[in-house]
Structures are given as C-alpha cells and as structure tokens.
C-alpha cells in the first residue's frame, strides 16, 4: 500500500518493526485499537533477526541475582511453547563441568534447580563423565567431571516477528515496512498529535494524526526520545554468530560451555538444519544505519572456543557457511563489562509518547503490556487484553491431507504460517514440497512469502522471510536461478530489476554475512583490492595452508 492510500487518523502508531513493536501491535490489535506499525527498513531488519534465537530464562541472570527477570522469562518460555508449537520448540542443552570450573557443579545445580522450580517441572539431570562423553564424544576429556542436561527453547526470530505482524493485520491492524518516522508532532502544550512518515524508497511523505505513539525502536530509541534518566542510556552491544553445517559440527543438542579465554558462556545451537555458534558481546561504535558485521577478532574468539572444547573435531573456518551480527539495545547505568549489563527493559513516558526499549526477544509480551499500560491514559477507553488468552489464532494439529509431508514438517509450517500453511502447500507443485538442501525450508515457501509478505528486496526474502541466506553457502547463490523461476510471477520485477536485486543482495551478503577472510577472497576474485582486503586475503591463505596441513596430518 502506498502512503497516499493510508488512512490519516489512528488511535496508536508504533515505530519499529522488531519483536517489541510486533508484540505491541498484536496486543493493541486484540484491544480493538486502530493501530499502525511503521518500520524504516524491513520487518525484523534490526536486532530481531540477528539474535541467538533462544526463548530462554537466561541461566546467567540467576548468577547475577536477577531472579525476577529469569522467572518472567521462564514463564514466557513455557507460555510460548504451548502457544506456538512449530515456531517455539523445546531444546535440550548439555553443559559440561570441568575440574576447577567457575561456576562449578554445585552452583550450576542450584541454578538449574531454581530454573526447574520456575518452570514447575524437574527438567535437569547430571551425567557422569562416561555418560556425558557418550553424548558428545569429541569433547575435550581433560579435566571433564561430567555435565548437566537441561531444557530451554528456540525459535526463528524473524518468523516470530512476522507471525505477530500477520496475525495483527488479520485482526484489522496495519503494518508498513520501508516507512520511517522522521518526526513526532506535538500540539501547543507539547502533547503528541501525530507523526511525519516517509517511504524510504519512493520518498513519499505523509502526516498522520494519532492519540499516542509508542517508540519501539530498540537501539535507535534515544534518537526519538532521549533518556529522561540522567545516568541511564542505551549502550549498543554487538553480538556475533558463526553458522556451520551440521555435518561439520555434529551436535543434536544445544551445548553451552565456558570460553577458555575469558570464562564467558558461549552456546552452540542446532537450528534449521545448521549449527549456530555465539555469541560475542562488545561495544558497537559503528553507524547504526549500516548492517552490523562480525570482525576478525570475533571470528578468532569463537573459533578458539570451539577448537578448545572440541579439539578432535578438526573444524576450521573452511567449514563455516556464514556469519551474522546483531546489536543489543542494552540500558547501561554504569560502565560494567558488556556481559554483566542488565537485560531488563525501561518504559519512558512523555505526553503521549511512550518509549519501550531493552529487554529480550523471549519477554516481548511483557514489554508490550508495560508499554500499553503506560499509553493507556492517552488511548480510547479499552481494556488491556487478557494475558492468558492466545496471541496466535489456532492452527490444526494436522492437515486433512498431508501431501506426503512428515508430521514434523507440518508442525513447522503451522508454527510459521498459522492456518495459511494449508494454502501454501495446496498452491505448491510436488517438486516444490521438498527441502532446499541443507535446510528445513521447503521450496514452496519462497513463492508464498514473496506473494503475501510485503517483499521489497531480495534480502527481505532470503534473509528474513526464509533464512537460506544464512543457511546455505554464499547466501544461496547456487539457487538463484530456481528462486527466480519460482518467484518471478509473484514479484513485479523485470529482468533488469532481478539482476539489480541479485547484485545488491550479493554485495550486502559479502559485506555483512561473509567471514572477513571469505570477503577478501571474493573481492580479490572480483579484483576489488584494498589494503584491508589484501591483509585479509593473506590471512585466508595462511588459514588455508594450516587447514590443508592439519587435514594432511590427521
Ligand atoms: C547477538 C544477540 C543475541 C541475542 N539472543 C537472544 C536470545 O537468544 N533470546 C532472547 O530472548 N533475546 C536475545 N537477544 C535480545 C533480542 O534480540 C533483542 O532484545 C530484541 O530483538 C530487540 O527487539 P526490538 O524490537 O526492541 O529492536 P529491533 O529488533 O532492533 O527493532 C527496532 C526496529 O526499529 C526500526 N526503527 C528505528 N528507527 C526507526 C524510525 N525512525 N522509523 C521506523 N522504524 C525505525 C529499526 O529499523 C528496527 O528494525 C539477543 C540480542 C543480540 C544482539
């Protein structure tokens, strides 16, 4: 929809199309408010497509004494597991325990027992060294004294955002991507009366009137609403992940370990047919309007961790498919080490403008309620939604006809698309009801999302609606021909536009999702030299020689 077709008047306008904005949109739509969400880039383009994809209590918050934060997150995890099967799924984690490790076995036991109490179910168990090693045979045996297994959950972060947005639209709300709020308009007594929006591509502008505005712009929040708390400000912290194919890093469980360099916890998570390893936690000083990128130092840190814990696995950067980095909106009160900063959220109120930022993917409903409670006095008289009611419309447990797809695949499709999964499958040819190699994504998902989910660019399609840009080598380059064939009838792109989209997507992928050494190699192949790329290319050669040697010696 173009801005000129958009109604002029709204009860509520939400700025930011990440999990926080999407959660608020869903709850506001359940309240029957006339609500609009605007996102300056694509839905979930910010942090909400770049997380570790865990729906978790956060064991480490217990160590810091943040019992309430963990309790709330565990409760949300349990709610979402019931509410969104196929999108939020239980995941068992293994935690090794070594001699002299901090936190040691006793502390971990206390933490995991508290976790179980919060979930009202005993979910953890200790294995002795033999039993634990059977589950991860390539683990470093030196000093291993056994380990725990416990339960948490995982999701597809950008699909969770999309599901919330699509459900809200089905209940009458409106959401537009590539639409930025450029200013917040106030009347003579300073009360919010509307916003100025711009379509970031067509440059069309429009003034919209509203009773209240919720600023859910994560790391960007202080641009629209400077912190009213003198000593508390947003501190953007970058976290990066490496993506490996599951045959190179064969783990069936989540796996957490203390990094040998700084005793920080790092996770490996099987996800969508691949394995994610992360995260780092560093101050992010770069321009927030650019896609964040993993640095060479972060790559080395993560590789060092993997090689120390799995020394016999012979894993190297040659195996790595892609990388991604995200920036946490963390509220900082004093200069603590990044990993010790609080993950709690704040709500600021200023005459019709409510800002909500910080928090976690897992606790999005709590952020939504707090923001809506704060905005209530500016809004028409309606009750907040019942917290126990479902946020997603139900999907059947199984289809009337299965079209040869396994139960697990239907569960995944219902989780991501709700009832629309039936249409997705009915529209597909049998050859498209097969998996894109190395992933759990069906070919048939591509034309369906291209047609129904506001795709403006190829990166919207391959990095956020489906995730094959992260899950297959070189951003899925080998599949471009088939993707184009599948989507050309539903996307209004001529040949020239497809060529441009592919070029822009590949440039973006190289810049933001290739490893620094891969980037240098690709740029060298394209004959684009810079001092930085030559340095990185020499490093690539060094790794290649080391990798070949170690394979040779093995
Ligand atoms: C590396 C990493 C790992 C993480 N792992 C987990 C995890 O496993 N589990 C968990 O629970 N949490 C995790 N988190 C935290 C979680 O991802 C974030 O708390 C959450 O995604 C923040 O969502 P948000 O909607 O507030 O911000 P964003 O997702 O950043 O959304 C804000 C949006 O606002 C838009 N915007 C900004 N300005 C404007 C404007 N003027 N007009 C219109 N739009 C605008 C931006 O483009 C952006 O898309 C992780 C975070 C990181 C960085």
- What's the level 1 CATH class of the domain at 3-48 and 158-231 and 342-378? Alpha Beta
Shape: globular
The proportion of residues in beta strands is: 15-25%
Small molecules bound: flavin-adenine dinucleotide
Share of helix among residues? 25-40%
| SSE-based structural type | alpha+beta
Low-confidence stretches: none
* Count of beta strands: 18
Measured distance between first and last alpha carbons = 59 Å
* CATH fold group of the domain at 3-48 and 158-231 and 342-378: FAD/NAD(P)-binding domain
Mean pLDDT: 93
Structural Rg: 23 Å
| CATH evolutionary superfamily of the domain at 3-48 and 158-231 and 342-378 | FAD/NAD(P)-binding domain
What is the correct CATH architecture of the domain at 3-48 and 158-231 and 342-378? 3-Layer(bba) Sandwich
Describe this structure in words.
It is a single chain. Among the domains are: 3-48 and 158-231 and 342-378, 3-Layer(bba) Sandwich (FAD/NAD(P)-binding domain), CATH 3.50.50.60; 233-332, D-Amino Acid Oxidase, subunit A, domain 2 (D-Amino Acid Oxidase, Chain A, domain 2, 2-Layer Sandwich); 428-512, no CATH class; 516-553. The strands form 2 sheets. Strands 3, 4, 5, 6, 11, 12, 13, 14, 15 and 16 form a 10-stranded mixed beta sheet that branches. The mean pLDDT is 93. The chain is α+β, with helices and mostly antiparallel strands. It is built from 18 helices and 18 strands. The chain is 36% helix and 22% strand. The protein has helices at residues 19-30, 59-63, 67-83, 105-119, 129-135, 157-170, 221-224, 296-309, 364-375, 407-417, 420-427, 445-452, 458-465, 468-471, 480-487, 495-512, 516-525, 531-553, and strands at residues 9-15, 35-38, 54-55, 88-98, 125-127, 144-155, 174-176, 179-186, 192-199, 205-215, 233-245, 254-258, 265-271, 274-278, 282-283, 322-332, 345-350, 353-358. The termini are far apart. The structure holds flavin-adenine dinucleotide (FAD).
């Amino acid at each position: 929809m173009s801005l000129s077709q958009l109604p002029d008047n709204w009860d509520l306008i939400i700025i930011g199309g990440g999990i926080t904005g999407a959660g608020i949109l869903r709850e506001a739509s359940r309240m029957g408010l006339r609500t609009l969400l605007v996102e300056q880039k694509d839905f979930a383009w910010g942090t909400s497509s770049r997380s570790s994809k865990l729906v978790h209590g956060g064991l480490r918050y217990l160590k810091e004494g943040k019992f309430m934060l963990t309790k709330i997150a565990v409760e949300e995890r349990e709610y979402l597991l019931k509410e969104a099967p196929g999108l939020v799924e239980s995941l068992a984690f293994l935690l090794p325990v070594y001699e002299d490790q901090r936190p040691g076995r006793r502390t971990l036991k206390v933490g995991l027992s508290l976790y179980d109490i919060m979930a009202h179910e005993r979910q953890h168990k200790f294995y002795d060294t033999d039993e634990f090693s059977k589950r991860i045979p390539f683990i470093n045996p030196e000093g291993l004294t056994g380990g725990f297994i416990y339960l948490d959950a995982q999701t597809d972060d950008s699909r969770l955002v999309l599901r919330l947005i699509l459900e809200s639209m089905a209940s009458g709300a409106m959401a537009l991507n590539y639409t930025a709020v450029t200013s917040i308009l106030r009347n003579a007594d300073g009360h919010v009366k509307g916003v100025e929006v711009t379509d970031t591509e067509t440059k069309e502008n429009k003034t919209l009137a509203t009773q209240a505005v919720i600023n859910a712009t994560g790391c960007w929040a202080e641009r629209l609403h400077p912190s009213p708390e003198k000593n508390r400000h947003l501190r953007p912290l970058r976290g990066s992940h490496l993506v490996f194919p599951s045959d190179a890093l064969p783990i069936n469980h989540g796996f957490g370990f203390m990094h040998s360099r700084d005793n920080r916890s790092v996770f490996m998570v099987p996800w969508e047919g691949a394995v994610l390893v992360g995260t780092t936690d560093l101050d992010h000083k770069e321009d927030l309007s650019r896609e964040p990128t993993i640095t060479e130092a972060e790559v080395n840190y993560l590789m060092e961790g993997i090689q120390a814990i799995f020394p016999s696995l012979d894993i190297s950067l040659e195996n790595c498919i892609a990388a991604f980095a995200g920036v946490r909106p963390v509220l900082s009160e004093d200069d603590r080490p990044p990993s010790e900063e609080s993950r709690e959220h704040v709500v600021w109120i200023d005459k019709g403008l409510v800002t909500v930022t910080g928090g976690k993917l897992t606790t999005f409903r709590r952020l939504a309620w707090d923001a809506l409670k704060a905005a209530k006095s500016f809004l028409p008289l309606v009750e907040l939604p019942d917290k126990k009611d479902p946020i997603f419309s139900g999907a059947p447990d199984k289809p009337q006809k299965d079209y040869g797809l396994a139960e697990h695949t239907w569960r995944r499709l219902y989780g991501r698309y709700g009832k629309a999964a039936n249409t997705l499958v009915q529209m597909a040819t049998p050859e498209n009801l097969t998996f894109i190699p190395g992933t759990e994504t069906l070919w048939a998902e591509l034309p369906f999302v291209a047609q129904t989910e506001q795709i403006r660019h190829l990166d919207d399609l391959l990095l956020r609606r489906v995730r094959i840009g992260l899950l297959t080598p070189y951003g899925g380059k080998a599949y471009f021909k088939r993707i184009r064939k599948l989507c050309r009838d539903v996307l209004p792109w001529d040949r020239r536009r497809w060529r441009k989209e592919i070029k822009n997507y590949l440039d973006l992928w190289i810049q933001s999702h290739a490893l620094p050494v891969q980037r240098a190699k690709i740029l060298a192949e394209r004959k684009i030299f810079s001092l930085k790329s030559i340095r990185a290319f020499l490093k690539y050669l060094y790794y290649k020689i080391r990798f070949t040697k170690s394979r040779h010696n093995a």
